[in-house]
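Hello again,

I reread your note about wanting to compare the complex against the isolated chains. To keep things tidy I'm splitting this into two emails, and this first one only covers the full assembly. Below are the input lines as submitted, including protein chains and any nucleic acid or small-molecule components. They are followed by the predicted structure of everything together. The single-chain runs will come separately.
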Amino acid sequence: MIENPLGIRPGEVAVALPQTFDAGLYFIGRIRTPWKTPDECPKNARESDAVCTIEVDARWTLALTEVETCTHLLVLYWMDRARRDLVLQAPRHYGQPRGTFALRSPVRPNPIAASVAQLVKIDGTTLSVVGLDCLDATPLLDLKPYFASTDAVPDATVGWHAERKR
Amino acid sequence: MIENPLGIRPGEVAVALPQTFDAGLYFIGRIRTPWKTPDECPKNARESDAVCTIEVDARWTLALTEVETCTHLLVLYWMDRARRDLVLQAPRHYGQPRGTFALRSPVRPNPIAASVAQLVKIDGTTLSVVGLDCLDATPLLDLKPYFASTDAVPDATVGWHAERKR
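Full-complex prediction:
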């Protein structure tokens, strides 16, 4: 365990990462957004109604068959500029350090984001969506149909976050 | 494009995969479930109220700080026994081939599953949860707090699936 090496904030803790990877990912497209730096990104996906564009690589064209029947998609993407070694972290807008798995920060052992996006339009391999908050040119990992029956839990709560708002 | 090579069903289509990976994943733990074969797994995560166990590797212990305040977690895991090259596929219980990105099948270019699980208990690095449907010993990739404000869309629909039930 490394406490307070260069580049981390007070209270943050980094660990040594494993020496080898266990599996490999293919980037299957790119996400185009209006945001070029982390500071410009919305704090969460509901803070902006900007239409973003998902460009799927031609190899996967047939995999989009019937995606147009979905109102919402679960979009998985790779936050390729995030460090992966913090276990306690203090995001700028929160302050107090918390566990990585209690946060939606990009910084995590596997920086895979999962965002629910509303599907506006599909034109060939280009999807127009609302509800993403990532940097422009972020690599795409997966698209899934969003099923309210299994994916929507409207009464779920995050205790530390609710406390904070009081 | 390879139509109907050995091992795929009528109407399914496979593509050649890219020759190299673009990023690497760490397995950060294992999921213990009652299901040892694909046939035993529930068809979706709401079909079973079995308590499953998530064993997080000791390296990530501190990353669980404050996770106990969450009622629900978004669990990302790696479906390591799934092929990755099908773009049109006909899952056993559906029949008609559909695009991979219109399905929640494990078979996809990056076989990352995203499931919402209810958190029952945390004991050290062992989490007891309800709402998973994966094979026993499935590798864990990430745990995230489930925020109803951004993750729950109760009125989302999947057109092809709704049609099917009529």
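For quick reference: Chain A has a mean pLDDT of 92.

B.
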